[in-house]
Amino acid sequence: MPTVLIVLGMAGSGKTTFVQRLISTLAMMGKRTYNVNLDPAVLEVNFPANIDIRDSVKYKSVMKTYKLGPNGAILTCLNIFAAQFDQVVKLIEQKKGQVDYVVIDTPGQIEAFSQSASGQIITESLACTFPTVNLYIADTVRCENPNTFTSNMLYSLSILYKSKLPMLVCFNKNDILDHTFALEWMQDFDLLDQNLSKVDTYLSSLSRSLSLVLEEFYRTVEACGVSARTGKGFEGMIETVGRCRGEYFEVYHREMVERIKDRNAKEKEALSALDVAMKQQQ
Ligand SMILES: Nc1nc2c(ncn2[C@@H]2O[C@H](COP(=O)(O)OP(=O)(O)OP(=O)(O)O)[C@@H](O)[C@H]2O)c(=O)[nH]1
């Protein structure tokens, strides 16, 4: 059964470069990948995509037809694609004996996928069929600012809660700046606090209060440092993905099946109530 890796991160964090490096590292390790591009607005896909959202929905014509701006058009393309996503799952299922990893690149604007209904539908469709792990890409250089570090941690926390799937935070661009400080901040609140007081603004005191809330999250989540540009840290990261896959089976899968069962039962109940109401009206 292949492991699905959903690559998410803020604009410019290096998602696409990361996906390219991930695919090439896995190939060098003798692993077979099935690659999916979910960014409808990208001009060129710089990795060998087996499925490309742009083959099904045309971003420019969606913009024109529905008179939408760039973000609205990305959301609409994802909605259209999510409605046919069961076909993508079927395609991957057919390949499951020939594939070790399914690698998914998401749109540049993180919220278009991570906070949208279509993103949730796509994630759930994959995760109820295959072991699925979210890879959150954070820009290490930007995280040097403790407020930006906290924003990234909050964002990944919100994705963890929304998707209820194992999460691996990858501090990218560690060829420019070593990521060890970020791992230390995740383990040592006092150290982060000292750094927050160096940039003492209203935002820092908010970040400080939020950091206490985040302590539990830091205990749950896996984190590592990588450079998508040089490939540094990728083999270790792939090893950690293996642990996350284990967690999916031990913790997350059972909860997901229960959640889906519960939702289906509620939908069935609502439909039969609607049926009764319509019959009474006739
Ligand atoms: N030094 C260095 N630069 C990197 C690394 N990863 C990505 N970059 C650079 O960061 C910039 C953004 O990278 P992308 O891969 O386009 O990032 P993205 O998150 O996909 O960007 P959008 O999809 O446009 O939001 C590019 O200039 C990359 O060359 C890295 O590990 N090290």
TrEMBL record:
It comes from the Eukaryota. Belongs to the GPN-loop GTPase family. InterPro entries: Gpn, Gpn1/Npa3/XAB1, P-loop_NTPase. This is GPN-loop GTPase. The keyword Coiled coil applies. It comes from Halteria grandinella. It holds the Pfam family ATP_bind_1. Gene3D superfamilies: P-loop containing nucleotide triphosphate hydrolases. SUPFAM superfamilies: P-loop containing nucleoside triphosphate hydrolases (SSF52540). The keyword tRNA-binding does not apply. GO terms for molecular function: GTP binding; GTPase activity. It is found in: Cytoplasm; Nucleus. Its EC number is 3.6.5.-. Keywords: Coiled coil, Cytoplasm, GTP-binding, Hydrolase, Nucleotide-binding, Nucleus. GO terms for cellular component: cytoplasm; nucleus. Binds to RNA polymerase II. Small GTPase required for proper nuclear import of RNA polymerase II (RNAPII). May act at an RNAP assembly step prior to nuclear import.
